[in-house]
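pinging the channel bc i need a second pair of eyes. not urgent but kinda urgent?? the chain im working w is below, pasted from the shared doc
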Amino acid sequence: MLMIMVSLGYAYLVGSVPTAYIVARLRKGVDIRRYGSGNIGASNAGHHVGKGWFFVVGAFDSLVKGAASVGLARALGLDLDYQALAALIAIVGHNWSAYIGFSGGRGLSVASGGLLVLAWKELVALLGVAVLGWLVFRSAGLWFGIALLLLPIWALFFGEPVEIVVFCVALLLVSALKRMLSNPGTAPKGLRWRDMAIPRLLYDRDTSNGGDWTTRTPGESED
């Protein structure tokens, strides 16, 4: 029981560390939740702090949050179901961080780190679909969504244990929930939730114009 508590405690507490928020505060003195998508993740950090910070934030979230959470559970001798649960809890912590009012990122970097240790073939398939779709259609949100939707199918195709299949389904559901809820206060004023529901679910943004969405500043988002 102690090993389980240590593993899952690490997953949530470290998963909740708002890396992009901290980087934006230290480097620019801004609250990244008020910029662009309001997402506390690598992509928004890259847009509003500096392109190089995309890789720094992404690497930390992937390796220290995702991969290390699974690695710690494995090192403590926990079974595969607890390893997968640790990865999922790290994603939940990242998406709804207790340190900053339960706002957060989308969890893709953390999920990638978890998949790297748990199911690397599914990770390759996910990134292959998402990146190829982005290169052809220039719609990252849509194609990452499609790639996540296919993830449980890949797990079945590769003959993974039931724990991995369940993890892939749970990851899909958590990602869809985060898309629909987004972060508090990011929606443009006057825009009703029902008008945002489809863009959020399909494109992972509140508006139909992706360029305007990713480049917003506090003044623009308050208009």
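so The radius of gyration is 17 Å. and The CA atoms of residues 4 and 78 lie 7 Å apart. — does that match what u expected or am i reading it wrong
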